[in-house]
Design goal:
The complex is a heterodimer. Chain A is mainly alpha-helical. Helix content of chain A is 71%, strand content 0%. In chain A, helix 1 packs antiparallel against helix 6 (102-127) and helix 3 runs antiparallel to helix 6 (102-127). By secondary structure, chain B is mainly α. Chain B has helices spanning 4-23, 27-52. The chains are: A mainly alpha, B mainly alpha.
């Protein structure tokens, strides 16, 4: 009985580690679970989409609780994981409001983060044996 | 490339690739679903653009 509980705990820890990896590096969860084709596709597409959003002069929103919509956009931006922090460290993502492509850049940055969250949920389902 | 239509097509492409890969398991099905999604995004975007055209914004 104790062994079963320990197994279950280990399995839960493994699942959460997969989710953490999937969030940090787009597609890493699927790669760790052996879904190489999906993992590589997510890694390339989501990273490219995020980089494209930066190139279009989109903004990486700050977490400002006084402005709920800005805070939600920041949460969505954070969904992409490590690329967000790399972009921040490189000083990109300031956003240029007057640029023609500003809103498209924001759409790419926010959607890349949100879609990576969906990818994390998919990796969670696979790790749980539901898919 | 930085025209509204061009950017919309590129955005539709990225989203279609991710959803096509996410929602289907077989590569052939992923390609078919992604292509249909991409077509729907582009046609829907252009149709919405024309519908909004008469509105005074």
């Amino acid at each position: 009985m104790r062994a079963t509980t320990a197994d279950r705990e280990q399995s839960a820890i493994y699942t959460y580690l997969i989710c953490l990896a999937a969030w940090a590096i787009p597609g890493a969860g699927h790669l760790l679970l052996g879904r190489v084709q999906k993992g590589v596709t997510f890694l390339i597409t989501l990273t490219l989409m995020f980089a494209f959003g930066l190139w279009l002069q989109g903004r990486l929103f700050p977490i400002e609780l006084s402005q709920p919509l800005v805070a939600l956009a920041a949460l969505a931006d954070l969904g992409i994981g490590i690329p967000f922090f790399i972009a921040r460290a490189m000083g990109t993502g300031a956003g240029r409001v007057v640029a023609l492509t500003y809103e498209y850049g924001n759409a790419c940055l926010i959607d890349a983060g949100l879609m990576n969250m969906l990818v994390v949920l998919d990796a969670f389902d696979i790790a749980q044996g539901r898919k | 490339m930085t025209s509204h239509a061009g950017l919309m097509v590129i955005f539709a492409f990225f989203v279609s690739v991710v959803f096509g890969t996410l929602m289907r398991d077989e590569p052939k099905e992923q390609l078919r679903f992604g292509a249909r999604l991409f077509g729907a995004f582009v046609v829907g975007g252009i149709a919405l653009g024309w519908l909004l055209y008469p509105l005074p914004l």
